[in-house]
Design goal:
The structure holds three protein chains of three kinds.
Chain A lengths: L40 H7 L31 E6 L2 E6 L6 H8 L18 E4 L2 E4 L12 E3 L13 H8 L9 H14 L5 H8 L9 H12 L3
Helix pairs in contact in A: 3-6, 5-6
Chain B lengths: L14 H6 L14 E7 L5 E7 L1 H4 L4 E5 L25 E7 L2 H8 L3 E6 L6 H5 L12 E3 L2 E4 L5 H7 L11 E5 L2 H7 L2 E9 L12 E6 L2 E5 L8 H9 L6 E4 L15 H12 L5 E3 L3 H6 L3 E2 L1 E10 L5 E11 L8 H13 L4 E8 L6 E2 L6 H19 L3 H8 L22 H12 L1 H4 L6 E2 L2 E13 L6 E6 L5 E4 L9 H13 L6 E4 L18 H28 L6 E4 L2 E4 L6 E3 H11 L14 H10 L4 E6 L9 E13 L5 E11 L6 H21 L4 E2 L4 E2 L4 H4 L12 E4 L17 H17 L7 E2 L3 H9 L14
Parallel strand pairs in B: 1-13, 9-33, 11-12, 14-18, 16-17, 22-23, 29-32
Antiparallel strand pairs in B: 1-4, 2-5, 3-4, 6-7, 8-17, 9-15, 10-11, 10-13, 15-16, 19-20, 20-28, 21-22, 21-27, 24-25, 25-26, 28-29, 30-31
Chain C lengths: L8 E3 L4 H11 L3 E4 L5 H6 L7 E4 L10 E4 L2 E5 L4 H6 L1 H6 L1 H8 L4 H6 L2 H6 L5 H4 L40 H7 L3 E6 L2 E6 H4 L18 E7 L7 E7 L10 E10 L2 E10 L6 E2 L1 H7 L6 H10 L13 H17 L1
Parallel strand pairs in C: 1-3, 2-3
Antiparallel strand pairs in C: 4-5, 5-8, 6-7, 6-8, 9-10, 10-11, 11-12
The chains are: A alpha+beta, B alpha+beta, C alpha+beta.
Amino acid sequence: MNEDLMPYDPTVDYTGEPAIKEITPDGSKHIPPWKPLNLTRRRFLQGVVCSGIAVSSTAILFTSGTRPARADARAVERLITLNVNGRKRNVDVAPNETLAHTLRYGLNLIGTKVGCNRAECGACAVMADGVSIYSCSTLTHRIKNKSITTIEGIADSDGTLHPVQQAFIDELGPQCGFCTPGQVVTAVSFLKENPNPTVDEARMAMSGNLCRCGAYDHYLKGVMKASEKV
Amino acid sequence: MAYKLIGKDFTPPDLVAKVTGSAKYAGDFRADGMASIKVLGSPMPHAKVKSIDLSKAEAMPGVLATLVPEDVKQPGPAGMAILSSEPAYVGQPIVAIAAENEQLAADALAAIEVELEPLPFCIDPLESLKPDGPNALTGGNVVGRDVEFQEVKWSGKDFALAGEDGLPQGKVPVEWAFGDVDAAFDAAAVVVEETFVHSSNAHHAMEPRSAAAYWENGKCHVWGSTQSTAFAQPGLAKMIGISPAELVFVAEYCGGGFGGKASAYPLMVLPALMSKKMGGRPAMLRVSRAEEYYNGYARAGFQGWGKLGFNKEGRLTAADVFVVQDLGTTTGFWDFNNVGAAISIVFQPESMRFRAIPVLTNTVPKGAQRGPGENQAANMLEPLFDKAARELGIDRVAIRSINAPGEGGKDAKYGAKQGPVTSAYLKEALANGAEQFNWSERSKASGQRNGSKVRGYGVASAYHSAGAAGFDGLVRLSPDGKLHIHTGVGNLGTFSYASTSRVAAEVLGMAWENCIIERGGTTKNLPWNFGQFGSNTSFTMSRTNFAAATDAKNKLLEIAAMELGGAADDYKLENEMVVATADAGKSMSFADCAKKAIDLGGKFSGMEAPEDINPMTAASVAGLAGSGLIGVSKDNMPKTATVPALAAGFIEIDLDLETGKYEILDYLGVADCGVVMHPQGLAAQIRSGAIMGFGLATTERHIYDPEYGRPNAIGLYQAKPKTYLDVPAALQWAAVDLPDEQSPLGSKGIGEPVEGCASAALLCAISDALGGHMFNRTPVVTDMIINAAAGLPQSHKPLQTNCQ
Amino acid sequence: MTDMMHNFELFQPGSLADAQALVKKHGDNAWLLAGGKDSLDWFKDRVKQPAAVIDISGLAELNGGIRDDDGGVYISAMTTLTEITKSELIKERFPMLADAAERVASPQIRNVGTIGGNLCQDTRCHYYRDGFPCYRAGGDTCFANTPTAMNREHALFEAKRCVAVTPSDTAPACVALDAEMLVQRGENQIVVPAEEFFIGPEIDIERMTVLEPGDILLGIRIPATWAESHQYFEKVADRNTWDFALVSVAMAAIKEGDSVSDIRMVCGAVQCTPRRMSNVEDLLKGEVPNEEMETLASRVASSGAKALNYNHFKQPLMANLAKRAVRSLSA
């Protein structure tokens, strides 16, 4: 093996022995083993301590996703109904919560990625009423009246891939794949608006989706190929 | 040689998950009751933790547990701490806190009070080397791979001799030479000499290195983001403080690594430790973009000096290079060694002297980034070749070709010891590329003006070693006739985990649709494999899979002979059957052989395993024993030389002298990667590596304020990786496609040099457009081009670092 | 460091009056949220932690879109940058504004980011954003103007203690087009010329615009004066997406015959406010744009500049962009 092939491996600076320090809180107290994996979802939800502004018991109302914004000076309610991928989903949303957080933790839609949390990369792109937006930098309460489509809502319900997804496979668009959900969502949104784009138009439309692997060439070929099929 | 699978495109099996969002990265792990971890990073570049007051934080609702430096194992000198009581850079983790959810953890984090006593700090290696310069760590300023932690100060005379803008050349821990350098310089027709700076560079993988863990039934389960699965596991266990057998490690997907997630790393350990403190409760550390910057092991920067001597034909007769590596705060990677090694092979100098010193600074820790050292070498040295070519009146492709290793590398020499290489076709890559690019005709337009724009051309080469030996291969034929190829290499996104698995299928003549790749975690019975880094996979994993499949093949033949009579030699494999060579009627399906293997037991079904395999592989074989025909073998094939990955890049740009902006009109990358295994995958690597290289060469910034020791380019909008609109819509690629004789199917790696040849080519093209202007700095940022075009001095001093 | 926003109450008032009442009630703790692109980063870094966030995106008064205004246009504050880039009316009359809007950040940011937010956004000085207690943050130091500070992006002009620059791409265009800002202040609507809307540190070091707490930008009126004039916008940034200008230039000019009868030229990212390039304007008025004028324009464009450690490149860049703008007049 060549030495210069070895990775930067910070673990080499650690000794194998002794084992880590005993990390019980006071060294003597026995911590009962956590039994996590047989808890029901429901019990888990009850167990969560609400953050942010406390929810009073009377505030547990589900607002309709289509109701107009409130006209009075009360703060927003936490329990809302979101229209995601064609389904109405009831979810507890803190006032300061981003859509990406709601999707990933509230609704377990983990296909939406958070690459930067600062509107700088596009891994979190979802469609709001068909328009590509950064879910990491959108308060969920801001878009509760819109119809949200995430990467999980792109393929047909029978699993048939969207032409963009198929074209990304055919053109080997993804590399590490972390930016791919955002690339797919943005491409789908774009081709709905412009089904016959030029390469330059596609490039411009996709430009808010960073790919650190640098697979732009392959993604663009995918978008152009998909445009022949949508 | 024509293969059924090798050299053909295919659809890697993880692509559907990637385009549908079902691919699960470490941060996508979910478990009921999962706690959230937050880490408090140092606000100071170097300080001693005097006290940590957790009382307010611990009293907050939902807070579950905390970890302070005293709770966790500490590394040796200049190691990367899990949590540190002497944070040595802004952002270094000091305290971790877990709470019911991320919001509560964040709120509690804000309530932690840490008292810090500031210590001297330094962000410029040369400052630290001054007689009274500050040390980045208490007790020393120099360390490195094979370099002991020590204090090195150069003399006032060293600095005075160099002058303000020269590189002082004091004592160094690394020095080697071959040939008579001084005599060669004396005899040289042209000597070029420059100082240069290469910035550090943050990897900024799209996926921040989130990690999750829980403990169950005495085992620790970790979900981590790493380029390597099997290779990362023992080191991770060591840091957690358990035996490898006690660690279940899952790493199905890695959202970008580029060397920054080569193996395991301290941040990945935190959830396991925190979970243990909570009685095994699942815990997730979601790493933010800023934390990814702080803990991402950036590419090391350099300050350096190079002197090259050429004879009148353009042959490099002498090279003298001196580099100072910016380590950040840890032992870092041997970029310094790799600079020298890369120069030695790419340019084949007849004589050479190399000196290097790795120096600690209070900047983010440096690790390996794609072509660590080799690509900086290309960026630092290639423009000097252009300068020499101009002085000699030699074409810029020609001067590289004269010096490049070629013809299989029969006369090529590598490194300080001038050792042999397994294969080298850089000369051929340059020739093929020049022809396809039409270099000789096109480059005549160099300097041509069109309004405010001027045309520039660049060519450059790069190297990385590309293969290792000695790891294990493991395949299993199940009774349903499917071939399970177990691979522990990792899934970086190059798809080489899949293309090298196809070697096993090729050996056995399997239809690809009857093959299943088993990967992604230690639950998958992985063999001991090298990691997915260092451009090695296409070589190393081809060998292990070849070895395992060959073992399976021999067992198939043996079983057929036992069942159908005759000797193993009388049989061959054909269409997933073992068939008698002389009598096609005598045959046995692979499925039946697998069933028979189970009946036979012993070595056939994995009840016995070879003695020379790694314990990890042995455990995996034991896990699979009795479930089919097991092919398992250590790669004992000879590897007698360095395996070089080589690449050449050709570029055409228009540079706008008024705006400092350039447009890439055309780019061609040519790879010497042995036999092409997966053309589409290779194309993707050549193109995307080039794009990363363009960023490294021009826009990606790494900035520290020298007075406050704080980084000023943390986020993506400040660090500036390339976007769709900064690169051409299409890039060209080609490959020499000649076999490496020490790789069973002729393949070797390529991932790293395809970046370096592109970045250096772009730097050369910018210089070319400006009439040969020497920036001697990477990156060349917009403002530098504007200043150069306007005839103004640059804002930075020649050897100033962390400022562009 | 936390990357999670502080806890706040979120209000979504249905009327301007409600919004104003909320601002009044919460005083210094109130924060108006438009597109949210700038605000959320401040919150995630916890550098700014207002207790009451008032989402004004739903207010009808801010959502009137783009309409004809006596030969000019009126643009409601919540109009997205994407709407501006696609508006036929704007592309026909004020193409420079469409160009400027299209150079902002990225498509997704333009899909949500508003013209109001783009004009009112805070400076990008990384020391200030990083939470340094600088003048602009109420402290007593400028960390970007020390002898060794990293200040490549900072000001060439009008630096009074603070050396931050305007980051907006649309602001220079609005100033060049002599736009007016319609602002709700208390019960009154006031009209502020764009050139006065943006303020430098000599007026108030903690603000970028005349907007006082509780003021709400309703919209932007661009008069017919410069409709379909010769217009030019160019922004130079390191990257072509997600980047703030190193320098930008916006020009509107009217020609009579071959000569320039009137001209406004504005430079972005060289001082705290969009900078009128009066030297160039004075030079060009009544003249026929030609190579000599280009040269003279570049000669005077950055006069009076005081470079910091790392930003003297902005002087030739200003000169070159002025030259290119003038060149566009003879094209």
